[in-house]
Design a protein that fits this description.
Rossmann fold; six-stranded mixed sheet
Length: about 450
Amino acid sequence: MEPQPTIAIVGKPNVGKSTLFNRLIGKKHAITSEHAGTTRDRVSQNALINGFTCIMVDTGGLDYGKKENIEADVQSQANLAINDADITLFILDLSQNLTTDDFMAADILRKSKKPIILVANKTDNENIAENVYNIYELGFGEPVKISAIHKTGIDELKDQIEKDLKKLKFKKKSPPAPKNVTNIAILGKPNAGKSSLVNSLLGAEKIIVSDIAGTTRDSIDTEFVHNDRTYNLIDTAGLRRPGKRGKGIEKYSALRCITAVERADIVILLLDGNVGITNQDSHIIKYALESQKGIILAINKIDLLEKGEDIKNLIIRKLRQKFSFIPWAPVLFLSAKDKKNIYQIFQISDEISKERNKRIKTAELNNFFQKITHKHLPASAKIRKPKFMYATQIDINPPKFALFFKNPETLHFSYPRYLENELRKEYGFTGTTIDLKFKKQISKN
């Protein structure tokens, strides 16, 4: 299979990289904000550029000078993106004058000896004439003038990308057929170790890891092949309780996180072994339950548990008490730092995927429900008593069942839980939500 061309978008913070990224991939994926430095990790998505299927990469801002901690990592990620790219889009803001950072970035790009397309953004600015003239000082020739926010100049930019791809001998091809991919979203409070876990699984520092809570703001997708099966790992921003979320960037990060859950098949709730279980963890898991996903409870930093089985059993008991509403969710102890038990994630995910796609024949299902409803008759305080009639499985992934009753509105609130528990005892469905829909049997007269 011929490799897909990779196109990296680089430039100073807040020049419009993420807005352009979203335009080129045709959807809102990277977070866009008026605040500089919103994008920290490399964010990649497939894009169709004039018939070429490409991998588009958004990066953190190239901002030089004295840097410490996470900002140095941001620059490192951007430099890695440049090295990996076939074509680099160097984007500048026409509303601003050139700075030392622009010239330093230009020097790095020239040393890469890769095709560079100079992109002059915000062409709707009144200072365009003067600032376009200054851009020629960078030595990249005529810039492609665009306004990413107003969608002007995007077709011209795509035409220039197409010319460079042809020079590099890339060929147009149809978008790849959908693959059999298991989407796994990793959730947790800020600083629970989500990015460290992804990096350990990939064996590469793709996601910025920092002791500063809230480092990951976008949801980062990374495909990974393990034992000939393909998985898409979705690293998410740490979700805080709604009352604790700030405005602006953090709000959009939370929305991206919720969207990531909706795209996932299986959600891993990563719990910090140092901190223990909090109400915030219960709040986070509700998103997965509401979206009817598979769920894995993972305790990170297993090195703290090597003191003995008693501590491990105590944590499991507390876990089951706190998450009593999901007793079917498997528990995994791991260490992202030491790579202990991390690949069991894929084994457990495969088992959950099998459970989510399980079908039960209608005749067998009806025999089962007839047996358990006779064993424990549905109680009601109403005069009109509910009575089970028949059942059928209406969907998979997750498994969904329609249960027809006479007078289902009079069922006691505890009865659906009884039916679900009995169904799980008989057929498993470990690790996944199941959906029981109660419908009214219409009498035929």
